[in-house]
């Protein structure tokens, strides 16, 4: 799969009685929405937008892969062209949208479902996670099309992302190296830390993380970032 290059803020209003109860009993007075963007190489511009039933203030951070050995293509079909059953495991680095801090990685696997020669691309079933050190992780699953925009389901999370659900829009920029993600999340019960909410830079294939973030210097990483 590609490198997942990938801030969020809950705008839910919780009933006071529900807030004191167990997390599973928390009931928003209206649907909660939290959205952010992730990109493989480009960065993401914070703006207000809407998508279907998911709308609200959008914040963003980006992610970029720098692992030279990822992704790996395993031709289990033993055919010369991409075919059903081929596997693509991957792990890529994540940075904040302003590209000033290293936050973690993406990790997962894609299973090739169908080769589309007329579209010069493929359809994969993707299962992977975005890891943010001590803050937790977000899990996603769904179709990944290399030739058009697609939506994957957000299936859950841990840490500050416990109980989240929603969807993520995946936009292909440069296959397989640059992807752009926009997350639409519901169910957040905790505020996002300020270090994840920096203003993202304009999307561009040429952008790079800061030298300090690349070097994982102490001031340019989140606490216990996932490596």
TrEMBL record:
Enzyme class, broadest EC rank = isomerase
- Provide this UniProt record's keywords sorted from A to Z: Chloroplast, Isomerase, Plastid, Transit peptide
Question: Where does the UniProt annotation locate this protein?
Answer: Plastid, Chloroplast
- InterPro entries given in the database record: Allene_ox_cyc (IPR009410), Allene_oxi_cyc_Dirigent (IPR044859), Allene_oxi_cyc_sf (IPR034871)
Provide one Gene Ontology biological process annotation.
jasmonic acid biosynthetic process
E.C. number, please? 5.3.99.6
Which SUPFAM superfamilies does the protein's record reference? Allene oxide cyclase-like
- Tree of life domain: Eukaryota
**Catalysed transformations (reactions):** (9Z,13S,15Z)-12,13-epoxyoctadeca-9,11,15-trienoate = (9S,13S,15Z)-12-oxophyto-10,15-dienoate
Gene Ontology molecular function terms on file: allene-oxide cyclase activity
Chief subcellular location equals plastid
Q: Write out the GO cellular component annotations.
A: chloroplast
The record's family statement is: Belongs to the allene oxide cyclase family.
The protein's name in its UniProt record: allene-oxide cyclase
What is the scientific name of the source organism?
Answer: Salix viminalis (Common osier)
């Amino acid at each position: 799969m590609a490198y997942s290059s990938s801030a969020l803020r809950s705008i839910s209003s919780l009933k006071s009685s529900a807030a004191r109860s167990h997390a599973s009993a928390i009931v928003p007075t209206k649907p909660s929405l939290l959205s952010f963007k992730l990109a493989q190489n480009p960065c993401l511009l914070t703006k207000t937008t809407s998508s279907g039933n998911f709308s609200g203030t959008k914040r963003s951070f980006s992610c970029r892969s720098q692992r030279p050995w990822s992704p790996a293509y395993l031709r289990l079909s033993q055919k010369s062209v991409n075919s059903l059953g081929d596997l693509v495991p991957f792990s890529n680095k994540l940075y904040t949208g302003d590209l000033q801090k290293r936050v973690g990685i993406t990790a997962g696997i894609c299973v090739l479902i169908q080769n589309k020669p007329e579209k010069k691309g493929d359809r994969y079933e993707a299962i992977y996670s975005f890891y943010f050190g001590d803050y937790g992780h977000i899990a996603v699953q769904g179709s990944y099309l290399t030739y058009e925009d697609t939506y994957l389901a957000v299936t859950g999370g841990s840490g500050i992302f416990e109980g989240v659900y929603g969807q993520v829009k995946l936009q292909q920029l440069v296959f397989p190296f640059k992807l752009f993600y926009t997350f639409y999340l519901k169910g957040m019960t905790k505020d996002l830390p300020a270090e994840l909410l920096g203003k993202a830079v304009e999307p561009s294939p040429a952008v790079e993380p800061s030298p300090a973030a690349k070097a994982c210097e102490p001031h340019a990483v989140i606490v216990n970032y996932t490596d």
